[in-house]
User: Which sequence fits this backbone?
């Protein structure tokens, strides 16, 4: 959940989603996910991970198949 600022999520293939303060989003397993600060103030967000025990924090995935 984004509580301050604006987060830009690059989903690949030229698709970018803006997440302003007050919004929430989720990541799906195997999904390309890259976020950056979309504004001039610091972004603050809360993250909850529901994953099996001993799951790595970072997983390499293949780039999306763009059409």
Assistant:
């Amino acid at each position: 959940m984004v509580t301050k600022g604006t987060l830009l999520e690059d989903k690949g293939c030229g698709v970018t989603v803006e997440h302003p303060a007050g919004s929430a989003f989720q990541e799906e397993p195997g999904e390309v996910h890259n976020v950056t600060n979309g504004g001039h103030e610091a972004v603050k967000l809360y993250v909850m991970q529901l994953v099996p025990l001993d799951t790595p924090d970072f997983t390499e995935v293949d780039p999306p198949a763009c059409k």
Q: What stands out?
A: The mean pLDDT is 88. The CA atoms of residues 46 and 60 lie 23 Å apart. Strands lie at 2-4, 6-12, 15-20, 34-37, 44-45. DSSP finds no helices and five strands in the chain.
